Amino acid sequence: MNNKIVTLLALSTVSILTACGGGGGSDSGGSTSSNSVPDGTRYYSITYSQENHSDGFDGSYEEVKNGQILDTRTDKSVGAYILTSSRLYTPKDNEENHIQVHSLNKWTYTWIGNLKKEVNFEVVNLSGVNIFDTLIPGARTEGFSTDGPNFNGQYFLNNDGNLKFPAGSQCLRVVSQKYNQDAFVFNTTDEDRVTYSDGSTYSFEDYDAENKDFINYLNQTDPYGFQYKYLSGNWQGIPWTTIYEVDSGVSSYNTTAVKYQNQNYHADYNSAVEWKAANEIKQYEIILNKSTSLTEEQRKSMRRSIAELKLGCVLFNESAAKAVTSIASISWNN
């Protein structure tokens, strides 16, 4: 029917705001601002990654001041085009990356201009909870991802895999997140141009027509019962087209494009549809139960993703962070 490889499953890993961490709060005092999070509260990010030559953890923190977390970088250029219904932002425009901490459970992240994302958290009591299974969910039962080396992660598991968080440890787990408006993010390099497999140029009209033709076929034949929606429009003189999964708002890079300065480029669609962790878990489970074509490694990867959503944390409080940094077998990248 067409040459699009559509992967419109909700396979997005939550990218939380910026590289700040947190949960709970600092164990020290501080003046209380107008919201329920005291000034001076530190939010810690602790993430495990598997790079080409080594694996390890990265850690950082930010501090709440007057109910806010501000971006202190010198270079704040957004580095991409961002198209909304009201404006086109260019790569040299500055991001705001401003976070309003309303409470432990609710934050609002202003990315740029009036483009915002609301994130809702669950505050999790980690007292007595296994540290390894919280930091690298699913690895104990499903093994590590085969995407990179795992020597340091395995060393942590072998030596300190049974350690637990002390009393007073907390973290934040994402429950849902929602942009206040739709947006398209794109770049204008040769690699981002929309082309056929032989390298010839795709017209935007042909690309959009394929989306129109494909949506009915997709909804009638999806083996998991997921439903999809086609959208197109023209903002600031820039035509756009996309197909997305209705429960998650997730779209495929191969069904999303914009026409900018007479060139067609693939784009990422940031939908205003609310993403919910519970919905993504349900979709993974449907795929695992119904699919007959997944490899064993693909199944393990999905089960690790489910574990990440159920057991993982994006932000830790100071008690939890201190417990992690005291573990000698953990390898840090920074």
TrEMBL record:
Domain of life: Bacteria
First and last residue of the signal peptide: 1-19
Keywords attached to this entry: Signal
Protein name (database record): Lipoprotein
Organism: Acinetobacter gerneri
